[in-house]
């Protein structure tokens, strides 16, 4: 392990982003928070720091356990951080909500044919008036 690692390099090594460029873009865009505040790409990561990282629909809140500037396999990358209990619970709750809302939506079995498209357009015109 190393003594100090840049934030973008650590996020890449911990496999939160596929490339360092994507990590840098997220940090500069204010998406990644280091100890509750925005950080610069060159910020040195310290063991025990709390980092909030967006991942698709989810936001991970992790505590830094170890430092590394090399990207390794996923099992080794998971040893670099520990997710907080609140973050894991929130992610599970939100995932369950998304799953339930997707079940409630009815997906059409096929695309509308010409007659149905005309009916849809007629309906939309009536709504605009």
TrEMBL record:
Pfam family membership, one: S4
Keyword rRNA-binding assigned: no
Keywords (A to Z) from UniProt: DNA-binding, RNA-binding, Stress response
Stretches the record annotates as Disordered: 70-129
Range of residues in the leader sequence: none
RNA-binding S4 domain boundaries: 5-71
InterPro entries assigned to the protein according to its UniProt record, in alphabetical order: HSP15, S4_RNA-bd, S4_RNA-bd_sf
Feature: compositional bias, Basic and acidic residues: 70-99, 116-129
KW Aminoacyl-tRNA synthetase (keyword) present: no
NCBIfam families cross-referenced by the UniProt entry: PRK10348.1
Family, as annotated: Belongs to the HSP15 family.
Protein name (record): Heat shock protein 15
The organism of origin for this protein: Billgrantia bachuensis
Gene coding for it: hslR
